[in-house]
Design a protein that fits this description.
alpha/beta, eight-stranded parallel beta barrel, globular, 242 residues, 8 strands
Length: 242
């Protein structure tokens, strides 16, 4: 069964618009868990545009499923992760000016640095995942440094799906999921997934978890967070049965 990880960054984005205390990301995380989410995802960015250090500490204490901390390779952020000790860390590229994460890590070019950071986190008992493009070279590099979990970037697939031209992107995701799974790598996926394009990925053999944030939070504006998560859980379950 493909699992659902819910990214709660946008709850913190709304809170930070007024620099107040509402809405609370921790409360959102608990509601998502009650609605059937299998993990909670939060990205501690270097510029602290949404999730704050205090949120990470409180989420670690409150989350009962799995807490997946997205983060860059920045040393200060790595030290926070080592101190908080989340269940999982997903290493992602990060640029200050980007609106959202725009692509996957280039493991090939940053092999030694990523290996060093991954080893420090793994030695601390934290599962490490790398957010990468659905590309064989990146998967091979990930395997070479001993990381056993990846999250495939689905941005190109999501963009193409909106234009009804996603056949090639889906085929690539399917092929790379199968390839990585054959290497013993746990395969997750995320970025741009919504209530229209998620069903196909939920049917992929070898897919472990889909991480979704923006579309769920957007849907929650109209139907409430609990209902929005339940609808996505139901959609993924339908895909599993397909």
């Amino acid at each position: 069964m493909v699992k659902l990880g819910v990214n709660i960054d946008h709850i913190a984005t709304l809170r930070q618009a007024r620099r107040g205390s509402d809405p609370d990301p921790v409360m959102a995380a608990l509601i998502c868990e009650q609605a059937g989410a299998d993990s909670i995802v939060a990205h501690l960015r270097e510029d602290r545009r949404h999730i704050q250090d205090r949120d990470v500490v409180l989420l670690r204490k409150a989350v009962k499923t799995r807490f997946n901390l997205e983060m860059s390779l920045n040393e200060a952020i790595v030290k926070i992760a080592l101190k908080v000790n989340p269940d999982q860390v997903t290493l992602v590229p990060e640029r200050r000016q980007e609106i959202t994460t725009e692509g996957g890590l280039d493991v090939v070019k940053q092999l030694l640095r990523i290996k060093k950071v991954s080893r420090r986190l793994t030695d601390a008992g934290i599962e490490v995942s790398l957010f990468i493009a659905p590309d064989k070279k990146q998967i091979d590099a990930t395997h070479a440094i001993g990381v056993r979990t990846i999250e495939l970037h689905t941005g190109q697939y999501a963009h193409a799906f909106a234009g009804r031209l996603a056949i090639n992107e889906f085929a690539q995701l399917k092929m790379m999921t199968r390839y990585a799974h054959g290497l013993g790598i746990t395969v997750n996926a995320g970025h741009g997934l919504d209530y229209d394009n998620t069903f196909c990925l939920a049917r992929l053999r070898g897919m472990h978890e889909l991480n979704i944030g923006h579309s769920i939070m957007s849907r929650a504006v109209f139907v409430g967070l609990k209902q929005a998560v339940k609808e996505m859980v139901t959609l993924i379950k339908r895909g599993n049965k397909g």
